[in-house]
Amino acid sequence: SEQKEVTKPKPVTTVKINSTEDYILRFKDIAIAEMRESKIPASITLAQGILESGSGKGRLAVKANNHFGIKCHGWTGGKIYHDDDEKQECFRKYKDANQSFKDHSDFLVNRKRYAKLFQLDIHDYKSWARELRKAGYATDRKYPEKLISLIERYQLYKYDELVAGKKTKKQKTTTKEHVVVKGDTL
Questions:
Q1: pLDDT per residue over 107-161, tens digit each?
Q2: Which of 51, 100, 156, 184 could cross-link with 151 by S-S, CB 3.0 to 4.6 Å?
């Protein structure tokens, strides 16, 4: 009998990302793997990737596979120049997005200014978001709120729970109830 040669499909290296949900589906596994390896919450990694790369649609992500806006800082690999805080700043360029995710972990783990992150509870994504800003990851004063909003809107904390095996601490928002009475003004 004649055997037909079976050809395996080639791995897809570039995936069209149409939405933030597509981005999450595409990169959740690498974020989870990096959480296991480096102890950085997958929720934080994904939220930073979404925010910094415009869900994979930004110029640095498209042209340089740089999903985290990491600047050169002594980098000896490929480079791309892009306007950020200043004109034509040097950013790292990667062979693929997975390399960007791995370098993001290494960047946080190996720099002293981020050491406080690793003293935080891995389930406390709010503290991680705030400490990233304090340590100087971003100049945007609203950076923590943006990360927290993304994590909660897309329930990214569920990936942290998958790895660590317990529920994420939910910090309750305290609101005061006020009964409006005649004569009250804003």
A1: 999 999 999 999 999 999 999 999 999 999 998 999 999 999 999 999 999 999 9
A2: 156
Q: Provide the β-strand partners of residue 45.
A: none
Angle at CA of residue 54, ends 78 and 120, nearest 5°: 85
Rg (CA), the chain: 20
Q: What sign does the CA torsion over 42, 45, 48, 49 have?
A: negative
Q: How far apart are the first and last CA of the chain?
A: 87
> Which amino acid appears at position 87 of this protein?
K
Question: Which residue(s) pair with 91 in the sheet?
Answer: 71, 80
**Residues 88/81, Cβ–Cβ less than 8 Å:** yes
CA distance 106 to 154: 25
* Helix H or strand E encompassing 56: none
| DSSP label at residue 71 | B
Q: For 5-35, how does the pLDDT look when each residue is reduced to its tens digit (9 = 90+)?
A: 544 444 434 556 889 999 999 999 999 999 9
Instruction: Give dist(CA 61, CA 93) in Å, integer.
Output: 9
